[in-house]
Amino acid sequence: NDTMENELIRVANILEPGTFPLEEPINSEYKIAGLVLIVTLPTSVPASSVMNEMILMARKISQRLNGRLYDVERHLIKESDLQAMCDAAAEYDNVS
Question: E strands within the chain?
Fold first, then answer.
């Protein structure tokens, strides 16, 4: 969230309906197939800033859960893909 509590990055369960079961205890053995991180532009902050934050968040989640990062087409993300995402966000900032 930004300083005004506007949502910048959303996290959803990759499986329908996209939510997490609230009845499960925090330390349960509950497992999911994956998470999806969502940014809807424009936001209250520059796209390049929110993209960098999303990538950092994705890396932290991936490391903590011993997971992998995939793109929307379910291809393993490479560093060059992350750079392309940052470049696209910077271009969005320049056009907006």
Answer: 10-13, 35-38
**Residue in 38, 35, 45, 37 with CA at minimum distance from that of residue 6:** 45
Quickly tell me which residue has 């993300």 as its tokens: 77
In tens, the pLDDT along 21-32 reads 767 666 666 677
Sequence-ordered list of residues with C-beta below 8 angstroms from that of 14, at least 6 positions apart, any chain: 32, 33, 34, 35, 36
pLDDT, tens digit, 9 for 90 and up, residues 9-63: 999 988 887 887 767 666 666 677 889 999 888 888 899 999 999 999 999 999 9
Q: State pTM to two decimals.
A: 0.81
Q: Is 57 helix (H, G, I), strand (E, B) or coil?
A: helix
**Residue 74 falls in which region: left (phi positive, over 0), alpha (psi -120 to 50) or beta:** left
Q: Say how far residue 64 (Cα) sits from the centre of its chain.
A: 14
